[in-house]
């Protein structure tokens, strides 16, 4: 019987594990076969305190090493099922079944796709969402990036090191991304911008050949060898039937305050004993450092909850 099982191995999950283990709890992380979360798909991280510049995968490896060093069990299998109706909870990770008093749901979020014709068919054949993984394949080729947030800026910078012709397509006339990141992209001579423009279709049979674009009621085809979709994220909540979600599909938190107004629980969900941390519930901040902080809060909430509900 575990005291706490953490589902997810991004900054939220690993930080929760560090705290839970140091509280003396029997702790396991179900990390998933592709452990580490979104930072595994990024390049330079320059806004995580303590590291002026570090590669995303290196930062996650350091967190994982720290967690393992503390003696936490990390299970590199995909979490497949959770029965929320019965306590202690039973968590299934592929062929393994585990019992636990509490859960921290920290499975993060994944790429949002445009949902336009041929996008799904051409994924891996010119359509990608991960520049650090795939930019190399577009050396010397023409590429587009779709989106106006930090991810789009980051993707564009990576791709522009390989492609001589990058077009950044954004649906509005203003970027959502941080100014510092936009400035870096603007400084790159091989990136041009298309504002107020939407991708309405992708073209190609075996591989991508072009994008059908629409702006101010006009449609045209932009020939492209590759497109990187960077339009945000969708939370990974599919395997949590019974957990209440908000109107955007993120796990809903049930903050609880003491009579004095002091926060009692920040990361509680609708199911007693299940807490949440990171991008799976966070539709607003979505940073590595905020995910880590939410992980810490979830572990502190577990500690409080166990002390009140399972003092053994
Ligand atoms: P985001 O901030 O939500 O931005 C998504 C962008 O895609 C927006 O510009 C949005 O347009 C556009 N978009 C959304 N749906 C679209 C659709 N169906 N068609 C066309 N465009 C669409 O997402 P993100 O850039 O992935 O970033 C997610 C979070 O991670 C953010 O909090 C970001 O700060 C963080 N992040 C941080 C870093 C870093 O600091 N190094 C790097 C990457 C990501 P509108 O602007 O019109 O809404």
Automatic annotation (TrEMBL):
InterPro entries: FAD/NAD-bd_sf (IPR036188), FAD/NAD-binding_dom (IPR023753), Ferredoxin-NADP_redctase_2 (IPR050097), Pyr_nucl-diS_OxRdtase_2_AS (IPR008255), Thioredox_Rdtase (IPR005982)
Any one biological process term the GO annotation gives: removal of superoxide radicals
UniProt EC number: 1.8.1.9
Top-level class of the enzyme under EC nomenclature: oxidoreductase
Record bears the keyword Metal-binding: no
Free-text remark on how the cofactor is bound: Binds 1 FAD per subunit.
Protein family membership: Belongs to the class-II pyridine nucleotide-disulfide oxidoreductase family.
Name of the protein: Thioredoxin reductase
Organism name: Candidatus Gottesmanbacteria bacterium RIFCSPLOWO2_01_FULL_43_11b
């Amino acid at each position: 019987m575990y005291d706490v099982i953490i589902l997810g191995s991004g900054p939220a999950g690993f930080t929760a594990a560090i705290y839970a283990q140091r509280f003396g709890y029997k702790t396991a992380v179900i990390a998933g076969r592709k452990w580490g979360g979104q930072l595994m798909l990024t390049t330079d991280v320059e806004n995580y305190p303590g590291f002026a510049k570090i590669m995303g995968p290196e930062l996650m490896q350091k967190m994982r090493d720290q967690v393992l060093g503390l003696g936490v069990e990390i299970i590199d299998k995909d979490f497949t099922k959770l029965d929320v109706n019965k306590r202690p909870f039973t968590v299934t990770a592929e062929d393994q079944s585990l019992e636990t008093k509490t859960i921290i749901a920290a499975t993060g979020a994944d790429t949002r796709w445009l949902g336009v014709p041929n996008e799904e068919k051409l994924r891996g054949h010119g359509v990608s969402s991960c520049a650090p993984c795939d930019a190399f394949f577009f050396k010397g080729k023409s590429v587009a990036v779709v989106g106006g947030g930090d991810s789009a800026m980051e993707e564009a910078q990576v791709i522009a090191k390989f492609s001589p012709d990058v077009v950044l397509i954004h649906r509005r006339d203003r970027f959502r991304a941080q100014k510092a990141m936009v400035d870096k992209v603007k400084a790159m001579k091989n990136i041009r911008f298309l504002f107020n423009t939407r991708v309405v279709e992708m073209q190609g049979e075996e591989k991508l050949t072009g994008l059908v674009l629409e702006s101010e009621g006009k449609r045209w085809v932009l020939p492209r060898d590759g497109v990187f979709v960077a339009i945000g994220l969708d939370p990974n909540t599919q395997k949590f039937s019974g957990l209440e979600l908000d109107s955007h599909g993120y796990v809903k938190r049930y903050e609880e305050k003491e009579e004095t107004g002091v926060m009692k629980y920040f990361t509680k969900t609708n199911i007693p004993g299940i807490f949440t941390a990171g991008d799976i519930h966070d539709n607003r901040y979505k940073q590595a450092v905020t995910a880590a902080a939410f992980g810490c809060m979830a572990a502190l909430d577990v500690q409080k909850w166990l002390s009140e509900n399972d003092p053994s």
